[in-house]
## 1
Amino acid sequence: METLGKLRRRHLVKGESLSAIARDTQLSRNTVRKYVAMESGEPRYVRKHQPFPQLGPFCERLAAWLVADSQRPVRERRTAMRLFEALQQAGYGGGYDSVRRFVKRWQQVQRPAVTHAFVPLAFAPGAKYQFDWSHEVVELGGVPQTVKVAHFRLCYSRRALLVAYPRETQEMVFDAHHRAFASWGGVPVAGIYDHPRTLVDAILVGKERQFNRRFLALMNHYLIEPMACTPAAGWEKGQVENQVGTLREWLFTPRLQFAHFDDLNAWLARRCQELEQRPHPDQQDRTIGPRFEEERVHLRPFTAAFDGYVEHPLRVSSTCLVNFDCNRYSVPAAHAGTPVSLRAYAQRIQIVADQQIVADHSRSFGRGQSIFDPWHYLPILERKPGALRDGAPFQQWALPDAIRRVQERLMQQAGGDKAFVELLLAGRQQGLEPLEVACALALEQGTPTAAVVLNHLHRWLSPRPLPTLPTPAGLRLTVEPQADCARYDRLRQPEVSHAH
């Protein structure tokens, strides 16, 4: 642009000839004449024809491949690099850039860019919220992994809430809704959703959906109207779609590092509160926080939480375990071989039999892990006390220090397995704390045997004697009788008739 300006000023302002300017600048007179005659003052180069010296013989074949790929699903279409590799096998000796430019030009001709027009939306306070998922990469416990983040956004105040999970399952959806409503202190009238499989069983005509029965139970509990978006029409919940992109830059860049999901979610909750200080998109002179306080009064009260579990019918194995999500959880031995129901929560696993919760475990998200409760196997130890030594449920049993020391002493004796099982049975009945005290007393006395420990335990738990009640004055003796043992000797005399 600087050279162009000099050429035009020398000819149009100073009156120099085109030949003189061409000799001085070492440009052709045609080039000088073209630039001097420009009215816009900005050169534009437009190639009328794109030559393909190497690709030319293969253009028809490449175009046919692109037409065939356009009829396939998006995930099955070949990229420009895959087409380039296929052309090389067909004898193409040119470079990849030529193939990439041809593919780009073909796509622009076949699928020209379309600009959609939208209507600005305005929502009433407490009317609607939007929900969506995103996948983010974080480092938990020193291991990079992809986490699923549930995004909520109130449409009026634009208040956001993010919760991270290891899975994108239905119980995670229930837990995320509970956290959102508890954080807002109320429940909106309607929610706008996409159509993931955890929520929608079937997509019908238009916006009609066959929602999952368990998800409908969640909606009915909170009296929320679920509203579905049109497939591939993300603009119908554009607020949360935009939130996914912006908060990924604000919160997840650079990569976050935490020890556990609890630490990550606590940090996300604090950051979402800090984001309330940002200006509201519709009212730049106000922040999101005051708008949320206006909307809070229009939310319905948040009362009882929804029991957000997903139930799975299972059968207990002979080793008192049930398999779920690539892990095994223990069940009391009395239910071995019987059908039970497993209730999967976001953080816990409960086993139900005969409408009673018989086992409760912290949920594991690894693979191939066994989560034991040693007390579930205690009835088996009554019959097989030897299993105490090598039984997997008892390998990592964190017993109190005093009980563990008594166990070590007993296991060195003959029949120590059975003796320690007797102590465990007493501990299950009376509690571990009294058993720990009894074991500590036995260790202090230097006699850590099962009989001594049980004696201390019974003495510790035996009821205390009742206090002595004072005798009323009217019942007290005025003359107390004297003790005379000689009168028993008189009964032995021969003249006493009744002694015979």
Note: Residues 7 and 36 are 7 Å apart (CA to CA).
## 2
Amino acid sequence: MAIYRWAIKTGDQRLSGTDANVLMSLRGTKGAMAELELRDPNDTDNWQQGEVNNGVIETSDLGNLQTGTLKHDGWGAAPDWQPDYVKIINDEDGRTWIARVGKDLKGQEVFRLVFTLEDAGQYEQMQKSKRLEADRLKMEQEAKEAELEAEKAEKELEDEERKAKIALEQEQKRLEVEKRRVKLEADLAKSRAEIEKIRNSASGASGGATMPSGFRTIELFGQLGGRNVPLIQVLVNQGGRFSVVAGGSVLGGENGSEGFGFGGSPGRWAEASGGQSPTAFGQDPNLGIVGFDGSRAHPVPAATLEQLFGTNWRAALS
């Protein structure tokens, strides 16, 4: 809201005054004020010859005053009125506008007021102070928001560290519980592999599938805690996507003395694949890649190889 002080001077000529009721409206760059009746609270007989009547209007901020209207309702025996000027003062910053009249107004005749700025008051200084204050408040708000963001980030980091610590402690306990079982499973798997190797040696080429000349088998196996373990022991299945467990690694064995005895030339691809070609699993025709799960070996699909070694898995394993 804004407060405007008005001053209207009635002309000095004889019979310039009126007993009629005076009404005025205002319009500025920010808004307009509807027509309202004016009355000087300190004068019992308004609008008399040569007098200046004053009053206060409380309305929305109109901005820089531009135009308005002035009229009277024609009441009284001799209602014609000759105002000299209308002056409006913004009570907050002292800006003063004036509109000249200088003519007789008949009853209900609307005179269009055109205002000019007579005094800029403290408007520019106050606007500058408001801008500076707004900038100060903005900087304080930004600093407060930055502080809150920093506190939030620090809390999130502490939460993440706490969760990571709990997860590591749980994983350590799980590994401790599984350590003996993994060792037994690995020893059992190695024994089975040795038995299978002996069987294959005894059977010779009579019962096995014919492999292409120069065919090789690479066995992928895991290493965890300095021990060789079946491949499945170092992999985590996350919705069909495999990754290596923390602290584990995946190695490739190219002969029967590495891993669990499935690698070599030609190795035991035929046993692991049931006689299928490596191409059925997205691999190359002369190189089969298998992984041991603790009980038997299986071909490793190309999609899994890409997840473990990247798109250049062939170069990594060749």
Note: The chain has two domains: 2-121, 198-317.
